[in-house]
Hints:
The structure is a single chain. By secondary structure, the protein is α/β, with parallel strands linked by helices. The protein has 14 helices and 16 strands. Strand 4, helix 2 and strand 5 form a beta-alpha-beta unit. The two termini are 13 Å apart. 3-phosphoglyceric acid binds next to loops. It catalyses: (2R)-3-phosphoglycerate + NAD(+) = 3-phosphooxypyruvate + NADH + H(+); (R)-2-hydroxyglutarate + NAD(+) = 2-oxoglutarate + NADH + H(+).
Amino acid sequence: MYSIRTYNSIAKRGLDVFTDNYEINASDYPDAILLRSYNLHEEVIPESVKAIARAGAGVNNIPVDRLTEEGIVVFNTPGANANAVKELLLMSLIATSRHLVEAVSWTKSLIGEGENVPKLVENGKKQFVGTEISGKKLGVIGVGKVGVLVANDAHALGMEVMVYDPFISVNAAWQLSRNIKRAESVNEIFQSCDYITIHVPLTSETKGMLNQNAFEIMQNHVHIFNFSRGELVNEDDLEIALQERKIAGYITDFPTERILQMKNVVALPHLGASTTEAEENCAYMAANQIKEYLETGNIQNSVNFPNISMPYVGNKRLSIIHKNIPNMVGQITSYLANHSINIANMVNGSKGAFAYTMIDIDNGIPSEVRNELTVNISRINGVIKVRII
Ligand SMILES: NC(=O)c1ccc[n+]([C@@H]2O[C@H](COP(=O)([O-])OP(=O)(O)OC[C@H]3O[C@@H](n4cnc5c(N)ncnc54)[C@H](O)[C@@H]3O)[C@@H](O)[C@H]2O)c1
Ligand SMILES: O=C(O)[C@H](O)COP(=O)(O)O
């Protein structure tokens, strides 16, 4: 029986993945955690936990480095909510250009004007004259799962699109329309675009990347869209740029008390991934990744360990998380050879300073030696976690 702990509300389609052999939120010693934006940084993670899956993209709510040292595999669900974010972003682009939020709210304020409403509407509409996005220039910073969809569809809507991503994946590059221009530096985006949207993860490198230096070189009256993370933007510098009308509008999914008080801000309650489809996609993908890892040791879409899989044939697999240092595999296989244990199949991969090895043993692993095998391999210097599956 495996035990899963959940945080946040997880779509039923994901929870339904955990059938007979699973219990949910029934134990203080879960095998895995499934969550969305819940902040895990302050939580004590029980030693029983082997995997944590983020039903979503951003993992800044998870202490990934600490968990990696402890041999806990962290997953996310690349692309599972990208379409939802893209649709919200495109809607916001057009809504901003047509002053939709202010216009709707002004029209609603006419309640009580009776038969004067049509006349007031005709007289008042001039205050909301907008612009069209067609022909305007959009800068997309970060061309991952969300950025590539935004760039292609904005171009299809008639926009000139320029993108910047120094780490663009081969897949994303293949998906990008050939009509989209690639910036050599982020400053090229800052200097030339009417609208700028940022789709990068929050890391120590990207924190505050939209700051005074960036705002200073932007076109006057630029609109900035942040559907990624609030901390990507320096709030002090944003406030000044908004006051000076350098930035005509800041549209964000990540309000703070201070941001809400700034003029020309449109703030949404972190709605990017909040569609039925995205919630189901993310939960389903995350749950399957946990299930696969617990039951077979195979890893897909981990942010801290390599993607590794091998067909699972049952009761003969050693799953070993270890440091990425010389002779780890040599020591493990020597131990097996010295105990006359024959290897049927093996796979190994690394990510940064950590690595993962799966070894299938010929003829399975007899139950009487399981404990001894786990303990002795765990004692090899550099081995972090050993499981027999
Ligand atoms: N508002 C929401 O509900 C919502 C939903 C999904 C994702 N997000 C946020 O959006 C971010 C992006 O999502 P995604 O699914 O596209 O992620 P992704 O990992 O597919 O793409 C991120 C891209 O950013 C690029 N990048 C990293 N550092 C960069 C830098 N300094 N300059 C330019 N590009 C850089 C990467 O190379 C990658 O291509 C997530 O990390 C998350 O924080 C928010
Ligand atoms: O990073 C993400 O996937 C989004 O910010 C979605 O967050 P949520 O699952 O809390 O809506």
